[in-house]
Specification:
With 71 residues, the chain is of the alpha+beta class. Helix content is 20%, strand content 18%.
Length: 71
């Protein structure tokens, strides 16, 4: 279970939101040990750098991409 400021991440959530946390644990639990943590701004793949996207959740990051239209 994830912690935020030392408390379970779902503390204070409605039952519906707790269900979302439980669903995420069920889906991602089996692969949790395979995840690789990185700092915002780190190169996560060759040529792909993460950007801080704080506000969604602590440590949230995004990866910008540029799509090139082909005709």
């Amino acid at each position: 279970m994830g912690l935020v400021d030392g408390r379970p991440a779902h503390d204070g959530c409605t039952d519906a939101i707790k269900g979302v946390f439980n669903a995420a644990r069920r889906v991602f639990g089996p692969i949790a040990q395979q995840r690789v943590r990185f700092e915002p701004g780190a190169e996560v793949l060759p040529g792909v750098r993460s950007l801080p996207a704080f506000g969604q959740s602590p440590g949230h990051a995004a990866s910008p991409s540029t799509a090139v239209a082909r005709s």
